[in-house]
């Protein structure tokens, strides 16, 4: 037994996986052997899900029933909708509402009595969760703006349907394709903190609802999925400060503030997903308001080149450009992290199933550095 302390489990190997691989020095990400760039440009989120869950890219004949099954399971029980309405009225945060919604879905799971070792049943349960998350989230947003939820659209895939349920209007092709691509880019990423959380929960053979709920909790933090919202808030803070963006960043870094959307445990170079999202952000900017793209790219250039962060291995991560993309799609800022969850649920489910297929309880240890002998004193004598 090694006594080496690996704070934050950095570099600790805990599992084998065929799902995704990251080369942090080359800035390369693959899902099951396919480069993320090819998947982002050539597939839909449904195809990426199929790939992660089944191990290969589907044919058209395989994709159709898979996408239909997802469509048929989009509706959520009225009790969930009523809860979304109450949480919206209580000004709850969308990420917390989503956490509650997923936990509630299990009450309406038709296969709730399935044997935990029946991994086919777990996958069907996971598919139901994945199908319902956009519906619950969009309903929450509708209630928040004083509108009724919009029923799922019978002809739209997961990405376009979410935008439709959010706004009540069918998105144009650019919006639907950009959002679909963002979902593909966020679907999996090795043993990141939220996926590992789901795996730890899954390793106890707890149900997939618990594992996904735990993943949502871990994703919500600012060091992980919460950073995409923080990036947009920083951009707005810069805009409202009336300072030159570079003066603002100079001041922030001098004060020791961490710039959200920068830095990564695995990448020492720019995240390949950030490159793709940057392209999307630039394209959207060319058609509309270029302000957010301009501020973001100016900050990147300044931090990486002039401040030398790139030499320290600190570069833009996936969250750096997703904010300006979502903003230009008209998505409310506090929905950015829930959208990340809407996509990453695919990876959580895939990793839990892969791990449970050859399960061993995850249980590390801590080095005890407390006192060995305090000398016990009964309550009345303390
Ligand atoms: C989807 C995702 O989860 S991607 C990550 C999203 N999170 C963010 O964007 C938040 C900002 N980034 C960070 O806080 C970090 O880079 C993390 C948490 C992502 C990775 O952290 P770790 O691998 O644990 O690195 P750690 O926190 O030890 O930082 C290492 C060094 O880089 C510096 N650093 C890391 N990120 C940043 C940043 N965004 N801005 C400035 N400096 C940074 C740290 O100050 C530290 O410097 P030091 O050694 O001189 O003290
Ligand atoms: O891998 C990580 O640690 C964080 C990340 O980029 C992700 O989860 O997409």
UniProtKB/TrEMBL annotation:
<protein>
    <recommendedName>
        <fullName>Citrate synthase</fullName>
        <ecNumber>2.3.3.16</ecNumber>
    </recommendedName>
</protein>
<dbReference type="InterPro" id="IPR024176">
    <property type="entry name" value="Citrate_synthase_bac-typ"/>
</dbReference>
<dbReference type="InterPro" id="IPR054872">
    <property type="entry name" value="Cit_synth_Halo_CitZ"/>
</dbReference>
<dbReference type="InterPro" id="IPR036969">
    <property type="entry name" value="Citrate_synthase_sf"/>
</dbReference>
<dbReference type="GO" id="GO:0005829">
    <property type="term" value="C:cytosol"/>
</dbReference>
<dbReference type="InterPro" id="IPR002020">
    <property type="entry name" value="Citrate_synthase"/>
</dbReference>
<comment type="pathway">
    <text>Carbohydrate metabolism; tricarboxylic acid cycle.</text>
</comment>
<keyword id="KW-0816">Tricarboxylic acid cycle</keyword>
<keyword id="KW-0808">Transferase</keyword>
<feature type="active site">
    <location>
        <position position="264"/>
    </location>
</feature>
<dbReference type="InterPro" id="IPR016143">
    <property type="entry name" value="Citrate_synth-like_sm_a-sub"/>
</dbReference>
<dbReference type="GO" id="GO:0005975">
    <property type="term" value="P:carbohydrate metabolic process"/>
</dbReference>
<dbReference type="InterPro" id="IPR011278">
    <property type="entry name" value="2-MeCitrate/Citrate_synth_II"/>
</dbReference>
<dbReference type="InterPro" id="IPR016142">
    <property type="entry name" value="Citrate_synth-like_lrg_a-sub"/>
</dbReference>
<dbReference type="GO" id="GO:0036440">
    <property type="term" value="F:citrate synthase activity"/>
</dbReference>
<comment type="similarity">
    <text>Belongs to the citrate synthase family.</text>
</comment>
<dbReference type="GO" id="GO:0006099">
    <property type="term" value="P:tricarboxylic acid cycle"/>
</dbReference>
<dbReference type="Pfam" id="PF00285">
    <property type="entry name" value="Citrate_synt"/>
</dbReference>
<feature type="active site">
    <location>
        <position position="319"/>
    </location>
</feature>
């Amino acid at each position: 037994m090694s006594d080496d302390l690996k704070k934050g489990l950095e570099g600790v190997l805990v599992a084998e996986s065929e799902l995704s691989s990251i080369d942090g020095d080359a800035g390369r990400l693959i899902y099951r052997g396919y480069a993320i760039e090819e998947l982002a440009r050539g597939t839909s989120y449904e195809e990426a899900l199929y790939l992660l869950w089944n191990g290969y890219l589907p044919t058209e004949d395989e994709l159709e029933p898979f996408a239909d099954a997802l469509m048929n399971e989009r509706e959520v029980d009225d009790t969930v909708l009523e809860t979304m309405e109450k949480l919206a009225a209580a000004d709850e945060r969308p990420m917390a509402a989503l956490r509650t919604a997923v936990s509630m879905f299990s009450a309406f799971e038709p296969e709730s009595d399935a044997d935990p070792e029946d991994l086919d049943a777990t996958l069907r349960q996971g598919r139901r969760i994945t199908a319902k998350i956009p519906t619950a989230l969009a309903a929450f947003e509708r209630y928040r703006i004083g509108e009724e939820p919009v029923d799922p659209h019978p002809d739209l895939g997961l990405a376009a349907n979410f935008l439709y349920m959010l706004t009540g209007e069918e998105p144009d092709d650019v919006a639907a394709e950009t959002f679909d691509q963002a979902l593909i880019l966020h679907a999996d990423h090795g043993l990141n903190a939220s996926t590992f959380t789901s795996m730890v929960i899954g390793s106890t053979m707890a149900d997939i609802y618990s594992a996904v709920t735990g993943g949502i909790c871990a994703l919500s933090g600012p060091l992980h999925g919460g950073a995409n919202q923080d990036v947009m808030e920083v951009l707005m803070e810069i805009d409202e400060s009336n300072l030159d963006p570079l003066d603002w960043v100079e001041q922030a870094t001098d004060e020791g503030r961490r710039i959200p959307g920068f830095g990564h445990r695995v990448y020492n170079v720019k995240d390949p997903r950030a490159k793709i999202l940057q392209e999307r952000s630039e394209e959207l900017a060319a058609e509309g308001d270029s302000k957010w793209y301009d501020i973001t790219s100016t900050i990147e250039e300044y931090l990486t080149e002039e401040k030398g962060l790139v030499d320290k291995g600190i570069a833009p991560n996936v969250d750096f450009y997703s904010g300006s993309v979502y903003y230009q799609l008209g998505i409310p800022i506090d929905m950015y992290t829930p959208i990340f969850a809407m996509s990453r649920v695919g990876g959580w489910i895939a990793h839990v199933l892969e791990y449970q297929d050859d399960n061993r309880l995850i249980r590390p240890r801590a080095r005890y550095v407390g006192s060995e002998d305090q000398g016990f004193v009964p309550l009345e004598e303390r």
